[in-house]
């Protein structure tokens, strides 16, 4: 004899009922919620019988904007509380900006799906009052102030445009644009990711797209920029299978190669490295990468093309590019940056994006 409580739960055979619910964790910023909405609407189309529920969480870094970002360890800045929710089975997947994901995930967590990528490039946005006067970095007079908190962006721009000045700029995209446009602001331009602006419907503000060409300012983007990373539990086979339908194999392989360069060079710390990946033919991936000193005077560059068909090949390819960068002087540049950070962890000003 069994009590009612011990009886199995029987799902009614009503065709409208959805038997499985996937809880989707995300940060609560406007951009993060847009990304989670995109993932849920795409997955819902692929799996109409599955119910998806978005769970927004404030991360430690969101709650404490005053403390220098490196105090959270640099690595895994936005992800820790969400991962705790994932491991506690309060969440089934987490949607991240791929560029904010650490290159090594905690045990039990995997990068389960890399969907189609937005434009990975950085862009220039001109202060409203200066629109029409300047468009590109090359237009800016000496002493113009560029707003960015990213050492990668600052170092690369300083290398090509040594007469420009740089000032810290943090906050969500809306906040940054408001600070830029304020009447009394010193900023002439802001550097942002095209992807974030695109997702927020703000691409109209872009006056220059930055890339490795001379017209593009010689700028390489962040590892994973423009991409999304969906994290899941390594042993949750049902969810892993369900996510695979949303993966772009080309984007996943390119992102794995980019992340591998970073993982190989960093030794535990997030570092300022720029990359650019492009498919150039039959399964051939071209990967360019750069590491620039904070003052822009020293740089290590490399570009290589190789056949990449599997995740393992992508990782090996990234390791090879990292080795070549090291031989070209990247390690010396990184040693200086890491020594500075170790000496001044709490005054750290620059974000590693
Ligand atoms: N550094 C913060 C961050 N993390 C993700 C994005 C949006 C771009 C993306 O998804 O790669 C941004 C804003 C930015 O860099 O302009």
Automatic annotation (TrEMBL):
Keyword Cell wall biogenesis/degradation tagged: no
Cofactor: dipyrromethane
All residue ranges annotated as the Porphobilinogen deaminase C-terminal domain in the record: 253-326
Classification via InterPro entries: HemC, Porphobilin_deaminase_cofac_BS, Porphobilin_deaminase_N, Porphobilinogen_deaminase_C, Porphobilinogen_deaminase_C_sf
Porphobilinogen deaminase N-terminal domain sequence ranges: 22-239
Example GO biological process: heme biosynthetic process
Domain of life: Eukaryota
Protein name, per record: Porphobilinogen deaminase
Originating organism: Neoarthrinium moseri
């Amino acid at each position: 004899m069994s009590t009612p409580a011990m009886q199995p739960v029987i799902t009614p055979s009503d065709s409208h009922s959805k038997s499985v619910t996937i809880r989707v964790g995300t940060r609560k910023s406007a951009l993060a919620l847009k990304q989670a909405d995109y993932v849920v609407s795409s997955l819902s189309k692929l799996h109409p019988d599955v119910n998806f529920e978005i769970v927004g969480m404030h991360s430690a870094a969101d709650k404490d904007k005053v403390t220098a970002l490196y105090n959270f360890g640099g690595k895994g800045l936005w992800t820790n509380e969400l991962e705790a929710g994932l491991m506690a089975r309060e969440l089934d997947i987490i949607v991240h900006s791929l560029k904010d994901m650490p290159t090594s995930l905690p045990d039990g967590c995997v990068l389960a799906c890399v969907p189609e990528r937005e434009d990975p490039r950085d862009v220039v946005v001109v202060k409203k009052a200066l629109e029409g006067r300047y468009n590109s970095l090359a237009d800016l007079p000496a002493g113009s102030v560029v707003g960015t908190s990213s050492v990668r962006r600052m170092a690369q721009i300083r290398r090509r445009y040594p007469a420009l000045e740089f000032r810290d700029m943090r906050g969500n995209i809306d906040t940054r644009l408001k600070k830029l446009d304020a009447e009394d602001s010193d900023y002439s331009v802001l550097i942002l990711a095209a992807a974030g602006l695109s997702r927020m419907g703000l691409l109209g503000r872009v006056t220059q797209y930055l890339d490795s060409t001379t017209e593009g300012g010689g700028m390489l983007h962040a590892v994973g920029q423009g991409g999304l990373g969906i994290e899941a539990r390594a042993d949750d086979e049902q969810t892993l299978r369900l996510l695979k339908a949303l993966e772009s194999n080309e984007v996943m392989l390119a992102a794995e190669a980019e992340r591998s360069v970073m993982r190989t060079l960093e030794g535990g710390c997030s570092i300022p490295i720029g990359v650019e990946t492009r498919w150039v033919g039959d399964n051939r991936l071209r990967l360019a990468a750069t590491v620039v000193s904070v003052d822009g005077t020293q740089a290590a560059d490399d570009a290589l093309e190789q056949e990449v068909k599997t995740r393992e090949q992508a990782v090996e390819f990234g390791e090879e590019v990292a080795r070549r960068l090291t031989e070209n002087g990247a390690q010396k540049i990184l040693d200086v940056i890491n020594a500075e950070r170790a000496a001044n962890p709490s005054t750290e000003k620059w974000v590693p994006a």
